[in-house]
Amino acid sequence: MAVGDCCFVALVVSLLRCIVVAGEGVEPSLLLLPEREQEAAYRALESVNPSVPWRALYPDDLCLSGPHGIVCDLLPSSNSGDDESPHIVELNFGYVSEFSNNPPCGPDATLPGTLSSFPFLRKVFFYNCFTSTKVVLSTDFWNLSSAVEEIAFYQNPSLGGSLSNRLAGLSRLSRLIVSGSQISGTITSEVGDLRRMEQLILSRNRLRGEIPRSIGRLGLLKVFDVSGNRIGGAIPSEIGRLAELVKLDISSNSIVGRIPAELGGLSRVELLDLSENRLTGGVPAFLAELKNLREIHLSGNPLGGAIPEVWEKLGGVLGVGMSRLGLVGSVPSSMGVYLGSVTYLALDNNKLEGELSEQFRRMESTAMEINLENNGLRGRVPFSAGFVRRLDGKLRLAGNPDLCLGEENEAGSRRGAAASYLRRCNKTADPQPVLFTSSGFSPENGSLFYLGVLVVFLVFL
Predict the structure, then answer these.
(1) DSSP 8-state assignment for residue 44
(2) Average pLDDT across the chain, whole number
(3) Span between the terminal Cα atoms of the chain, in Å
(4) Which parts of the sequence belong to the Disease resistance R13L4/SHOC-2-like LRR domain (predicted)?
(5) Where would I find the H helices in 265-340?
């Protein structure tokens, strides 16, 4: 929407507001934005884009006819609650789209120094504002009203500074987002005092230090994302106390040690991303307890060990990332049996051996990408010709010299990627048989099953 259109809409809103107020017998002058907030709003707009003549474009009350992004509300002017007056409750800066046409930020944008002048401010939002001139997030910025519920900085690559200990004074803060900036320093332990916090997103910055153990006190936290920083130390076991957590992403850091078993208490977690760190100690068996898990990403950690038998309880998982873990042993047949909803499976660049169970064909209805490259797998590829043809380059099997294509799936992939690097199976390369038992599908139990059938048959003769 153009600036002229915004002015026209604001004028219409202003006229309607006056009509309503007059109809209620209240003087319109009594519902004007306080002068202090009006001036502070002008100065904030001039900070983010000094090239725009904000005062000339919006000479009237900014609550009645202001730019999109400045949001007002009628609030009691005293504790009695008898009288209400307009106050600015949201400041949103940075053009996002036509559907969220906030005041655009200029190339020389700076942080407003007047935010403490808004006593009822609930939300402050900056998107792609600080992109060229370096801007420092100083301690003074955090002198905000205790009414603030949301602070968001998205994609501001020239924003520096650090998080402040004064965060603890924002007792109503439920959402803190600083993503895509040069914010450095550590995550202050005072963050644990923000008991109303539901989303703490500090991704793609330059944070260092460790994740504070006080994070375990945020009982309402649903999203914790510190991915793409320089954080070290171990994963605090206290994270396992976050019973409401839905997303945990600490990927692309320098975190070390074992994955604490206490994370098995995250019964509501749907996304668990611990990838690209320095974690050790094997793939944890507690994954079986995460009944709501939809995505698990562990790739790029020297975990080692075998793939655990946890898949019977994880039938709703959509994505599994276990590349470059140093995994050994075979690929459990239970993955093929129970991961019937999976869209993404990555087990590449490990030390996996053996044959792939015929049960992996169960993935064909949902799988969009399967990567098993650079292992020691052997035998016939279990997938159908149609599936091999459909996935083409998204079915990655190279680097397994003893893996081969049967006649039926070779025909389906004759023009695809798989045929270019997999040999054709000889007639003795049969798929690995898998039988269902009370504990799942186990190829080792196959011979015992047939022996039992033979014994029963001989008895009844």
Answers:
(1) H
(2) 86
(3) 87
(4) 187-296
(5) 333-338
